User: Fold these one by one.
Assistant:
Number 1:
Amino acid sequence: MHPPVRLAVNGATGRMGRALLELLRDDSRFELKAVITSAHARQINTPVFTGDDAGTLRYSSAWPAPGVLDAVIDFSGSAGLAAALEYCETNGVALVTGTTGLDASLTQRLDNAHQRIPLLRAANFSLGVAVLTRLLREAATALRDWDLEIVEAHHGRKEDAPSGTALALGKAAADARGTTLEHDAVYVREGLTGPRPAGTIGFAVVRGGDIVGEHQALLIGQGERVELGHRATDRSIFARGAIEAAYWLAGKPAGNYDLDAMLAERRAK
Ligand SMILES: NC(=O)C1=CN([C@@H]2O[C@H](COP(=O)(O)OP(=O)(O)OC[C@H]3O[C@@H](n4cnc5c(N)ncnc54)[C@H](OP(=O)(O)O)[C@@H]3O)[C@@H](O)[C@H]2O)C=CC1
Ligand SMILES: O=C(O)C1=N[C@H](C(=O)O)C[C@H](O)C1
């Protein structure tokens, strides 16, 4: 049993931040040291928890002094993740991030971060999507010539499209087929004419209401099709996955880690 992991949550007033705090409040494996959100959030300087065991923790936009944290969990946005990455790299702190919709330069910074810190990124922290990804790799290989379409649906406040998960599923299938999304993805069909080009991977996006997150991969042949799908109905599944990842990652040497490695290590125990 190692001492509690000293943790910060970044993006703490958001949908995922709130789901994380709800679970972390009663998780004795962690000592919550900082609860960080944007400087303009109305919760800044207000108590994070209420009740008899509330403690003195307050929302803040300032990162703690060096030496205070072992790990950061980030579900914020590009600016929030950039700040978290800067802090973690400067202070040698482990970073778990689920933020999606990153531009090329932030992706590049993350790609290089493994030289300095333990880093675990996942576009989707649910166990179900980890399994869906494996199934899709197998189906995309076995049904190599079938058309592949990826359909995703999310709540109306989501900022990026297609979702990080849809892109990760597309990438997994493209890798399995020996191609790339840069070469074969079709994100928009408006203005295209003629038949569907063979080998392309199509993406379609639905946005509305309170949909937590749904992903479907359709492998479409002649006279038959395979449909693989996952439906999240509660975002606590993502929060739980990220918390397990932070506990697993804290104290590891610098490097790039993923959920598959964590799940494999746990299965082996
Ligand atoms: N990998 C996964 O499993 C999942 C990934 N996600 C991804 O996580 C991200 C967040 O999602 P969600 O919680 O729904 O989004 P929200 O918009 O609800 O939350 C984002 C939070 O980050 C805060 N924020 C903005 N800028 C900064 C900053 N510079 N520093 C710190 N905090 C900041 C926002 O504050 P304010 O509102 O004041 O701007 C807000 O509280 C998205 O990219 C989403 O796609 C979501 C679910 C699961
Ligand atoms: O923004 C969300 O809500 C979600 N985002 C992630 C994504 O972009 O794939 C994961 C999940 O589907 C919820």
Number 2:
Amino acid sequence: MGHLQNLIAWATAQGVVIDAIQPSKIPGRGTGILATRNIKAEEEVLKVPPGALRCLESIPSSIRERLPSHTTIQALLAADLALDKSANAVPWKAVLPKMSDFEVGMPMMWPKALKDLLPLEPRNLLLKREKTFQDDWNDFNKAFPDVPYDEYTYAWLVVNTRTFYNESPETLKYPWEDRLALIPVADLFNHADAGCKVYYSPEGYHIIADRDYEKGEELFISYSTHSNDYNLLEYGFIPDENPSDDVYIDDVIFPKLGESQKAELEKRDLLGEYPLGEATEEFHRTQAVLRLLSGTVKEFDRFLNGEEHGQVVQNRVDTYLLKVLDEFLSDVVTKRLQEVDALKVGLEEQRALLAKRWTQIEEIINRKIGSYRERQMDTLE
Ligand SMILES: C[S@@+](CC[C@H](N)C(=O)[O-])C[C@H]1O[C@@H](n2cnc3c(N)ncnc32)[C@H](O)[C@@H]1O
């Protein structure tokens, strides 16, 4: 029996109910879930009972007691996985991605020269994630010094890329972003921005078809509405289509900021993270920094206090933003694409992912420039 068939037999024995789907190898996406017959919308295709979860409650107290009380659920799950040598875990572990998959997709595993060519905002996010990983490893290594670094790294990345939100009386004591669990078989669904519904009941996790599917079609779930910088950093892939994608212009903004302007922004917790997505909450940060760069501190304050009236300042800010976006294209994006192309460091697939991201950024900026120009023409008419 192959690993995937073995997994199904094992999962069924754990009480997992699998209907009309099967895991299969999908080019470019590792393993995914395919329909084995035509499926109607609202059909339940998977149910995973609570007993089959790898979650806070299933972690042996012998592990929890040896790790510090501040240990996150993510780090506890990673510790549990790194230490789990039981035969019961083998069928699930056998279908997990390999370390070589993480080395390609996860920027955490890239050589520094490639990490340095990531856009500034995700580069900063990566530094934070690396610090979290390092802290988790230090705690784990003190408690379990016999487990090698590579084995823990692998377990940590498995947890990082395939957990689900899991609410229980125990996990409610943790911050919401850390209420995590591993759900065998459900963790084989790949991401698309529209996908099957996932919900939890006392019977466990249910996955329900969101629409009709034809036999052989891949079924997806949505991991959430993240930008592709986030998808790359946290999950190690870049979707081709992503309506929630956004671009941060920190790379072009930061070199323009003087020390006193940085201090002004820092004072108000507005230093860094400048997205272009107008629908995002953080777009307010972008509007604020553009006012500071193109106007006076007084105007900047008026904007922050909600005292800006009329269109005059906004029109000037839009014109300034257009200039900034042109600069972003010529001074940052084009340069980065050339640098990635010239670089011989790392694996070809790693460089291809990085180049894909900068190309997407180039396309988004070009679309933005087009829509701002159109808006300006409309205002003039
Ligand atoms: C929850 S797992 C899904 C199953 C996974 N493909 C596997 O082989 O085990 C999440 C991982 O799947 C991959 N993935 C998910 N959605 C993808 C997509 N739309 N395109 C490419 N890779 C995807 C990424 O590597 C991600 O870290």
